[in-house]
Amino acid sequence: MKWQVGPPSLPKGAQIAVLEGDPGKEGPFVFRVKVPDGYRIPPHTHPKTERVTVIAGTFHIGMGDTFDEKVATAMPAGTYGYWRAGMKHFVWVKGETIVQFHGEGPWSIKYVDPADDPRNQAVVDK
Predict the structure, then answer these.
(1) Which residues contact 125 (CB under 8 A, 6 or more apart)?
(2) Mean pLDDT of the chain, nearest integer
(3) How far apart are CA 48 and CA 28, in angstroms?
(4) pLDDT of 9-67, one tens digit each?
(5) Ordered DSSP codes for the chain
(6) What is residue 115's DSSP assignment?
(7) How many structural domains comprise the chain?
(8) Domain that holds residue 94
(9) Which CATH number do you get for residue 60?
(10) 3-class state of residue 116 by DSSP
């Protein structure tokens, strides 16, 4: 696998390896995301069902439009989960974590609070 810097839609620190297809285009895809201990993704949604398998580390997911670690469910390595399109959720990890995503593209992410979107922050940082 060839790890690359994660997409600009994810907070800094993510790496991605595309295993099949192109997540940005119509059609099936499989990709893995590797993130460092303590990595967080603020509340967001996806326009299509999200399917994940935790390969390493512990992936914590919580539902709702407010980030609250106390209400997140821990998903250790080997766990599979899926969430319907439009479900508001947030993520944090314990230990270096690798998660595999698969589904039908295009894959995209929309943050509940636009100020949390790294693509918007990049404009502010200039």
Answers:
(1) none
(2) 95
(3) 12
(4) 999 999 999 999 999 999 999 999 999 999 999 999 999 999 999 999 999 999 999 99
(5) ---EEPPTTS-TT-EEEEEES-TTSSEEEEEEEEE-TT-EEEEEE-SS-EEEEEEEEEEEEEESSS--GGGPEEEETT-EEEE-TT--EEEEEEEEEEEEEEEEEPP--EESSGGG-HHHHHHHH-
(6) G
(7) 1
(8) 4-125
(9) 2.60.120.10
(10) helix
